[in-house]
Amino acid sequence: MAKVTINEELCKGCELCIRACPKKILVLSDTKLNSKGYHPCEITDMSACIACAACARTCPDVVIEIEK
Q1: In CATH, what number is assigned to the domain containing residue 24?
Q2: In angstroms, rounded to a whole number, what is the distance separating the alpha carbons of residues 19 and 58?
Q3: Which of 68, 5, 36, 10 has the alpha carbon at shortest distance from 26?
Q4: Please, which residues bridge with residue 63 across strands?
């Protein structure tokens, strides 16, 4: 199973990773805000992740890390 790590403090909520995910398991947080006032993305179902890294490659701020 893959492990996805998102640096929530650096995420600006651009949603590019959400659109890139083929499994549609990334969403913007409804409850969290980072220090810049953005809702960071979060993964809804880690077990559904196929570790394709489309989200990490798409992220302009390099805040997503994938470990297999």
Answers
A1: 3.30.70.20
A2: 9
A3: 5
A4: none
Number of domains in the chain: 1
SS3 63: coil
Tokens 């394709």: give the residue: 52
pLDDT at 68 over 90: no
23 forms beta bridges with none
Q: What is the pLDDT of residue 46?
A: 95
Q: Is 22 left (phi over 0), alpha (psi -120 to 50) or beta?
A: alpha
In whole angstroms, give the CA distance from residue 17 to residue 58. 6
Residue 1 banded pLDDT, cuts 50, 70, 90: confident
Domain that holds residue 53: 3-67
Which residues, other chains included, contact 53 with Cβ-Cβ below 8 Å and sequence gap of 6+?
66
| DSSP conformation class of 44 | S
